[in-house]
Design brief:
Shape: globular
Pfam families: 2OG-FeII_Oxy_3 (PF13640)
Number of helices: 7
Structural class: alpha+beta
Number of domains: 1
Radius of gyration: 18 Å
CATH architecture: Sandwich
CATH superfamily: q2cbj1_9rhob like domain
Distance between the termini: 17 Å
CATH class: Mainly Beta
Helix content: 25-40%
Order of helices and strands: HHHEHEEHHEEEEEEEEEH
CATH topology: Jelly Rolls
Protein name: 2OG-Fe(II) oxygenase
Largest sheet: 12 strands, antiparallel
Amino acid sequence: MTEEMNREKLVSLILSKLSSKKEELKRDFQESIHEVGVRYCFLENLLPEEIANRIQTVFPKKHEMRLMDSFREKKYTSKNFDQFDPILKDITFAIQDKRVIQLVEEITGIIAQRPDPSLYAGGLSLMVKGNFLNPHIDNSHEMTRTMYRTLNLLYYVNPNWSLEKGGNLELWDPRVKRSVTVESKFNRLVMMETNPWSWHSVSPIKVNENRICVSNYYFSEISPIGKEYFNVTSFNGRPEQKLRRLYSSVDNMLRNFLRLMKRDGLGKKDVYQNSKV
């Protein structure tokens, strides 16, 4: 079976599953704003179990990925799809298919969304024991700063996961004082909006198991808050991490200032450069 046919099969499966739960997801997404002010929803069993298991089985090992290690986060990432089983590229870009985006628009009510072939901040993610992602808001735009980031789609393929293992998605109120937890459950797709107050994090991994995720973002020329804004990815500490909260705020201000001074940033951008997606 060709690469295109493989991806087409995945797109068809995703569309079928989303369509079957469309009204439920639509309701959940809108009602969730009353929890901490961030709209989100999740869909169980996105793909047939044998396909989800295959994605998990061929997922790259940590030595094949890039380590992101700072006071802000510790995790492994990769966009080097040509080095891995084609199904990893297929599932990533199936979620960016225009038909999937259109259906997600109907679910979320967020219009004029676009895919991101460069996978700016997206791609494959792996976390092991002790890894974490501190509370943060995502950078407001894609690489060219012509489109706003509107939606984060997270597909988890770590089998037999449970809340006690850590590594779960946390959504925070605007002051990063109160949160709700969404379990990083196997074969679950989470959709959450991104805006200047959509603080979220991943709790530290507590077990010697891999927490693995396929991450995608959608973008739009239309601001999700109805007016222009800009921010780099900005971090905070957890409520009990008072010192980390203090120097995170200083770090955020400095990085925002540098990006405003140098539009393209100072470092090399981690993007997917293969135009055939």
